Every structure is written in C-alpha cells, then in structure tokens.
Amino acid sequence: MAELSVNHLLGIRELTKNDIELIFETADYFKEVINRPIKKVPSLRDITIANVFFENSTRTRISFELAEKRLSADVVNFSSSASSVKKGETLLDTINNILAMKVDMIVMRHSSPGSPHFLAKHINANVINAGDGTHEHPTQALLDCYSIRERKGSFKNVKVAIIGDILHSRVALSNIFALKKLGVEIMVSGPNTLIPKYIHELGVLVELDLKKALRWCDVANVLRIQLERQQVKYFPSLREYALYFGINKKLLDEIGKPIIIMHPGPINRGVELNSDVADSEASIILDQVENGVAVRMAVLYLLASKKNPGTSK
Ligand code: CP
C-alpha cells in the first residue's frame, strides 16, 4: 500500500507532491463514503484521537471530529478555556497527560507558530497541525487545492490569486506551498502593508491592483482580514479596505469572465467579500467545507497506518 513520507502532518512544507496526490486519491474514496446513506467506515475502530484546540475554531474542529467519527475512531475534545492550562500547566504536560489515557493521535490548533513541530519532537504519537498561529494550516490548503482540482479537473494551466491579508495568514502560506508543489501559477494581491517582504522568495507574483489580479486569475482565494493578529493599523479603516480590496458582484461583472471564488471562512461579509458574491454561483465556499471532511479523513487514515511514529527528536 502507498504511504505518506511523513509520520505527522506539521505543514505542507514537509510534504512531497506524491504525498499530496496520495491524500487527494484517498479523499476521492472518502468523499464517496460521506455521500452514502450510511456515512461511516470501520477504518480507525482501534484508534483514539484528541482534538486539542488552544484557539477558537468552528470549521476545522467540527470537520476533524466528523472525519474521525466517520472513520469510527474514538474522539475526545479539549478546549483550553475550560482546562487546567488556565492553572499554569505547560503544553507538554497537558499533552502527556492526555496521551497517558491511551490516546494515539493529537490534532492541535495553537496560537504559537511551530508548536506542533515542538510536540512531534517530544511525544510518541502522530501530530496533525490544525493551524499554528500565522505559520501553517495544512489541512485547509489540502482541502482548498482538492476543491480546485474537483472544479477544474486538474491543475494544468490554472492560475490562482490569493487576495487579502497575506501577512498574517497561515492559509496563504500553506496554499502557496501546496500550489507550488502542484505546479500552479500563483499571484498574491492586497494592500502593500499586508504583503510580506519575503514573498518573492516563495516564487509568487505580486499585484497590488485588485482588478488586474482578478483579470489574471481563474480562481480567487479571498482571505479574511485577521484583525485579532494585527497589533498596528495596516490600513486606515475597514470601509477603505472594502473599497479597494473588497470583492462584490459589480466588480466581477466589470471583469466579465468566470472566476471561481473561494474563502477559508469565517467571512467578514461586506469587508473582503460581499454576500452577492459569497452566496453566488461563482462561490465554492461550502464545497470547500464539504471537501474538508473527506480530506481530513484521508489524512487521519494515512497517518494512522504509521502508528507509534516515535519522537522526531
Ligand atoms: N478555515 C478555518 O480554519 O476556520 P475555523 O477557524 O472556523 O476552523
């Protein structure tokens, strides 16, 4: 059986193109499973998974839990706000206590970039990064690319524009790594202050004029303005941001060509995306959410075959 080159899913950076294609082929099977009347298979019947979330989440947490349950895994959910972390317990102590209860796999979201990498070095269980600060969100990028592949048939000649708050976005970085590995042309667009200085080193095009970026692309992945990560003001006001970088139907009509609209959620409606686009035929936002379950089932299934991964110290 084909297997992943990694024992953990820490980021897209660590995956090969073959790993990504294997995840997509496995997700194709699980997408068929979750559309059956009985949406469940016994694949992970002997596995226990802890979803450990130190940051808020709607989509990723529920999607992982559903993926785990549809694979028949036992699932425990941990939320830091209701835990002994509040009493000063360290990350490693918290996770080691969870593992002592015979948990096999950790899915973790944490505000500190690199925290899943730290964990993988110190524990003997598979670690899946569900978003580490402004660093990576690998399953989001996998489900985004899977959704593009589903809609376009392949990645051949596909041009993707990633639009908005590139600087603070783990979704942007993971998408750039994934799309580059798949041979896709990438452009980033947004206010100059929200485009990182190192971006050219990642081999992407930069276009500060939103209209030019939209004219160039086949797919626009529109990102949320992450106000919670912005310590200083990067643009004068949300009104001004919406005026220059918000996408609405009038603007798309003016561009006059079909563009697939994506967004990882949650959407700031009326800021980066208007409802007349988010809820339109052009939008595949809810397809992304559906595909997230199949893609996460694939990741969990493929990593579970690598039980007892050992520490990566
Ligand atoms: N896309 C995403 O990560 O959404 P949540 O923060 O709701 O999980």
Describe the structure.
The chain is of the alpha/beta class and 313 residues long. It has helices at residues 17-34, 59-70, 91-99, 115-122, 138-152, 170-181, 210-216, 238-245, 249-255, 275-278, 285-304; strands at residues 48-53, 74-79, 105-110, 126-132, 159-163, 185-189, 205-206, 219-222, 260-262. The chain has a five-stranded parallel sheet with strand order 7-6-5-8-9, with helices on both faces. Strands 2-1-3-4 form a four-stranded parallel sheet, with helices on both faces. The longest helix has 20 residues, at 285-304. It is globular, with a radius of gyration of 19 Å. The mean pLDDT is 95. The structure holds phosphoric acid mono(formamide)ester (CP).
Quick tags:
five-stranded parallel β-sheet; 313 residues; alpha/beta; binds phosphoric acid mono(formamide)ester; 11 helices
